[in-house]
Amino acid sequence: MRRLNSGTVGIDHGDVVLFSDFEHDGEMWRGDGPRQNRVNVEFAELYLNPPHVQVSISMWDISNNTNIRADVQAENITAAGFDIVFRTWADTQVARVRVAWTSIGELANDEGWELY
User: Fold this and answer.
1) Cα separations (Å) of 13 from 20, 31, 43, 62, 81?
2) Could you tell me which residues come within 8 angstroms of residue 112 by beta carbon, excluding any fewer than 6 positions away?
3) Mean of per-residue pLDDT scores for the chain
4) Strand ranges of the sheet holding 81-88, from the earlier edge strand across to the other edge
5) What does the alpha-carbon distance between residue 8 and residue 31 come to, in Å, rounded to a whole number?
6) Do residues 93 and 66 make contact, with C-beta atoms less than 8 angstroms apart?
7) How many CB atoms neighbour CB 73 within 10 A?
8) pTM of the model
9) Per DSSP, what are the bridge partners of residue 86?
10) To bridge 59 with a disulfide, which of 5, 6, 98, 111 should be the other Cys (CB 3.0-4.6 Å)?
11) What pLDDT is attached to residue 44?
């Protein structure tokens, strides 16, 4: 469990279309084997420390001709942002994916100050 020590907690969220490979016969749609797509997200405001980030698929369009295989994660989390990473493998055909995200963490407190 993570304990927040600040009196100011920030919550940010968004929805990101990671790719739409069906339209241009892209790698996620036509490829096979291990594939990934990575998108960087910047928070609306800088957190005091790297926040907790939750990601989930909010829309996907996947072929029913193959098995559905997907992995979505938040990686490289900093106080300023993070990467959403979508992975698939084998013969899965993914036309498009949108990912929702939420971050929760400490913000700088206006009443706190540093001497040096």
Assistant:
1) 21, 31, 8, 25, 11
2) none
3) 91
4) 35-42, 81-88, 71-75
5) 46
6) yes
7) 13
8) 0.88
9) 37, 72
10) 98
11) 96
Tokens representing 39 are 């998108």
Backbone angles phi, psi at 92, to 5 degrees: -60, 135
Pairing of strands 9-20, 71-75: unpaired
Distinct helix (H) and strand (E) counts, the chain:
1, 6
**How far is 60 from 95, CA to CA, in rounded Å?**
8
**What is the DSSP secondary structure assignment for residue 111, as one 8-state letter?**
T
Q: One-letter amino acid identity for 53?
A: V
Give pLDDT tens digits for 21-52: 888 888 989 888 999 999 999 999 999 999 99
| Residue 116: per-residue pLDDT | 58
Within a 10 A sphere around the Cβ of 101, how many other Cβ atoms? 20
Torsion from C-alpha of 17, 41, 37, 16, nearest 10 degrees: -10
Where do we find the tokens 């942002």? 81
